[in-house]
Write a structure and sequence with these properties.
Elements (H helix, E strand, L loop, with lengths): L2 E3 L9 E3 L2 E14 L2 E12 L3 E5 L6 H8 L7 E6 L2 E3 L4 H6 L2 E4 L11 H5 L16 H14 L16 H13 L5 E5 L7 H18 L2 E5 L3 H7 L2 E6 L2 E7 L5 H25 L1
Parallel strand pairs: 5-10, 5-11, 8-9, 9-10
Antiparallel strand pairs: 1-2, 2-3, 3-4, 3-6, 6-7, 11-12
Helix pairs in contact: 5-6
The chain binds adenosine-5'-diphosphate and magnesium ion.
Magnesium ion binds next to helix 1.
Length: about 280
């Protein structure tokens, strides 16, 4: 990754990463929960239309980082900049207003509501007027249309979400986020519950959004094969820090695997040393 200050004729211009304009940037993000330090100063940049993959052990702080980026949690220190401007997110709505949409690892769907009700959750369409009556017909029609457009196969949009498969539910959560025409999309393990066919569909959708609509995407996934197919760049989180950051074209499955395995070995050794010392 290369970051440059793109100095045009007027001097300081927008910062760019790999010749893309920087859309999202963090500087020194820290977070602790009581005595547990989860993030120890995370610096990240994300270019326009770029897909950045985050990998790392369970507990490395990836989900916490994403929750801070989308306003669900607040950092203890550090800055978030959207298109070069520092932002303060107190709620998820604050981040949404800046064009940031999220699919959480622990899904934010309501199991007892139908597919179309979930798709329009907190953004319900009404007929307008004082009573604010729900326009269910319109919401159902748009749900059908959008799911067909992105080729998500859910036969019955009136079905309650808890009757769907894990993969279908995940697809609905992704559809809910992508339908908003976000500028920045944060996906925390969107492929976790999915079969091969469903994964391929979501991968195609993410590629289309980044390549054809300029959406910038952060995606967490444990599957390196998915990441290499999907991402422009990959960052590794280890114990609350980014320890590795490379363009996918400049790294390999072997390098990433070796990095994670050697980290695991080091942790085992440290654990053994601590036990002996105790
Ligand atoms: N709300 C919370 N309260 C206390 N600890 C938390 C909370 N959320 C996350 N943690 C802890 O923070 C660490 C990082 O978690 P997380 O960000 O989910 O990691 P990852 O997504 O990389 O697996 C874990 O040790 C987890 O137990
Ligand atoms: Mg996580």
């Amino acid at each position: 990754m290369t970051i440059t200050e793109d100095s045009g004729p007027s001097g300081a211009g927008p910062k760019v990463v790999d010749s893309r304009e920087i859309v999202l940037q963090t500087e020194g993000i820290t977070k602790r929960f009581g005595a547990v330090v989860v993030l120890r100063g995370v610096d990240m940049v994300l270019g326009r239309g770029e897909v950045l993959g985050l990998v790392g052990d369970n507990g490395a702080g990836k989900s916490t980082f994403v929750k801070i980026l989308c306003g669900f949690q607040r950092q203890d220190s550090g800055r978030i900049l959207v298109e070069g401007e520092e932002v303060q997110f107190h709620t998820v709505e604050d981040a949404r207003a800046k064009g940031i949409e999220t699919v959480y690892q622990d899904l934010a769907l309501v199991p007892q509501l139908t597919v179309y009700q979930n798709l329009f959750l907190n953004r319900e369409l009404t007929y307008g007027g004082k009573l604010g009556l729900m326009n269910n017909r319109k919401m159902r029609q748009l749900t059908r249309q959008y799911l067909d457009e992105i080729r998500v196969n859910v036969p019955n949009i009136d079905a309650e979400v808890d009757r769907l498969s894990g993969g279908q539910r995940q697809a609905i959560a992704v559809a809910r986020a992508t339908r908003q025409e976000a500028k920045i999309l944060l996906l925390d393990e969107p492929l976790a519950a999915m079969g091969a066919k469903e994964s391929a569909l979501i991968i195609d959708l993410v590629k289309d959004l980044s390549q054809n609509r300029g959406v910038s995407i952060v995606v967490i996934d444990h599957n390196y094969t998915h990441l290499f197919e999907l991402c422009d760049r990959v960052s590794v989180f280890q114990q609350g820090r980014v320890t590795f950051d490379k363009r996918v074209a400049e790294t390999s499955l072997e390098e990433l695997t070796e990095l994670m395995v050697s980290d695991y070995r080091r942790q085992v050794m440290e654990g053994q040393a601590q036990l002996k010392g105790a």
